[in-house]
Write a structure and sequence with these properties.
Shape: elongated
Number of strands: 2
Helix content: 55-70%
Radius of gyration: 19 Å
CATH architecture of one domain: Orthogonal Bundle
Largest sheet: 2 strands, antiparallel
Structural class: mainly alpha
Order of helices and strands: HHHHEEHH
Oligomer: single chain
Length: about 150
């Protein structure tokens, strides 16, 4: 069992916990409210391929927490929909890499745009002072994104 390093309780440790909870709640809310044309696993797989490039089915399965046969089935479905394609892995001709097609990139872009619109609609309803406070946090949020991507 992995122990959480997120501080809990009141006092000086409450702020980081509150921030983590608030960021996760925002992410979850937007994720739930964005209409889906495919499963979360399919969407996450396309996003991973978009953000990090081609990958083997086994790597995708591990990242998504599904079995290799389940990922093979999902990739076949995505391939049939024209969202991904398979090609030989130049490092090992026996293996295949899954990569996004242009249609797959468009699907990821549309989903991100829909999610961004949900955030924008919420932000627009905030008082000016709160929007300014959010804007001031953008550099820290971008740095956090860089840190998390580097892990």
């Amino acid at each position: 069992m992995v122990e959480s390093t997120i501080p809990v309780g009141g006092g000086p440790n409450a702020e980081p916990h509150d921030l983590v909870e608030a960021l996760y709640a925002l992410y979850a809310q937007v994720h739930r409210q964005t209409p889906r044309e495919m499963s979360l696993t399919a969407s996450a797989t396309l996003t991973r391929l978009n953000d990090f490039g081609p990958a083997r089915v086994t790597a995708l399965a591990e990242l998504q927490g599904v079995t290799q046969p389940s990922m093979t089935s999902l990739v076949s479905s995505l391939e049939g929909s024209g969202l991904v394609t398979r090609r030989r892995d130049p490092a090992d001709g026996r293996a295949a890499l899954v990569e996004l097609t242009e249609a797959g990139r468009i699907a990821v872009s549309r989903r991100r745009h829909a999610q961004a619109e949900r955030f924008a609609a919420g932000i627009a309803r905030l008082p000016d002072e709160e929007r300014e406070r959010l804007a001031a946090a953008v550099p820290a949020l971008r740095l956090l994104d860089e840190i998390l991507r580097g892990e």
